């Protein structure tokens, strides 16, 4: 952090976490340029940025983060809204996506969302675009999915392995190129798509992503 910025990684109660443990990024002391309020809604400001469950005195940035064990460097893992709670472990979707894309011989693009799971609370669901195109058979898809799970386990840890992996020629995006994650969440939950898909660049991709491996 910059001089004068007292940043920390804490759990849901505001307790400091050790280096290497993922949690929520907070600022413990105010600084001159910080947000002061939300126009006409001071209560929302307090609940959003100074939550009572953390004592009401530390500023919640809204990002998940982890500090490296050796140097203490901060690494952002994603927005709190995009953090999954898998068996009590907080995992950033951005972190898992980065691990998948780091498999440069296979993966061109990836997106990760969560879905409810009876055993782990939330399950990691990955949507993957392969450099060589969609798998031609179920056996090939299962083999690649197993390879990607092993890769994520090596890069992050076994807890981060995707439970579901779906392959598509591309990902559902708006015409401006933004991934429509709300659609991915519906697909991951096997829900009917009721959202407006008129802005999708390639509406046919939704059917491709229906099969999980």
What does this structure look like?
There is one protein chain. It contains 5 helices and 9 strands, in the order E-E-H-E-E-E-E-H-E-E-H-E-H-H. By secondary structure, the chain is α+β, with helices and mostly antiparallel strands. It has 2 domains: 6-72, Luciferase, domain 3 (Roll), CATH 2.30.38.10; 82-209, GMP Synthetase, Chain A, domain 3 (2-Layer Sandwich). The strands form 3 sheets. Strands 1-2-3-4 form a 4-stranded antiparallel β-sheet. It has a 3-stranded mixed β-sheet with strand order 7-8-9, with helices on both faces. Strand 8 (121-130), helix 3 and strand 9 form a beta-alpha-beta unit. The protein starts with 6 loop residues before the first strand and ends in a 5-residue tail after the last helix.
Helix and strand arrangement:
Blueprint (H helix, E strand, L loop, with lengths): L6 E4 L12 E5 L14 H8 L9 E9 L6 E6 L3 E4 L2 E4 H9 L5 E11 L3 E10 L7 H18 L8 E4 L13 H8 L16 H4 L5
What keyword list fits this structure?
Luciferase, domain 3, GMP Synthetase, Chain A, domain 3, 2 domains, 4-stranded antiparallel β-sheet, 213 residues, alpha+beta, single chain
């Amino acid at each position: 952090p910059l001089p004068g910025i007292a940043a920390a990684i804490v759990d849901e109660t505001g307790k400091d976490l050790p280096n290497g443990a993922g949690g929520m990024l907070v600022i413990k002391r105010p600084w001159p340029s910080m947000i002061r309020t939300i126009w006409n809604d001071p209560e929302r400001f307090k609940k959003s940025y100074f939550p009572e469950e953390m004592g009401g005195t530390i500023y919640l940035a809204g990002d998940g983060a982890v500090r490296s064990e050796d140097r203490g460097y901060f690494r952002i893992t994603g927005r709190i809204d995009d953090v999954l709670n898998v068996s009590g472990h907080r995992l950033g979707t951005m972190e898992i996506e980065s691990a998948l894309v780091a498999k440069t011989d296979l993966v061109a693009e990836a997106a990760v969302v969560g879905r409810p799971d009876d055993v782990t609370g939330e399950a990691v669901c990955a949507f993957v675009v392969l450099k060589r195109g969609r798998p031609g058979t179920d056996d090939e898809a299962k083999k690649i999915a197993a390879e990607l799970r092993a890769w994520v386990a090596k890069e992050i840890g076994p807890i981060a392995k995707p439970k579901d992996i779906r392959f598509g020629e591309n990902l559902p995006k708006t015409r401006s190129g933004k991934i429509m994650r709300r659609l991915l969440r519906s697909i991951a939950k096997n829900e009917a798509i009721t959202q407006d898909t008129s802005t999708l660049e390639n509406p046919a991709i939704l059917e491709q992503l229906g099969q999980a491996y």
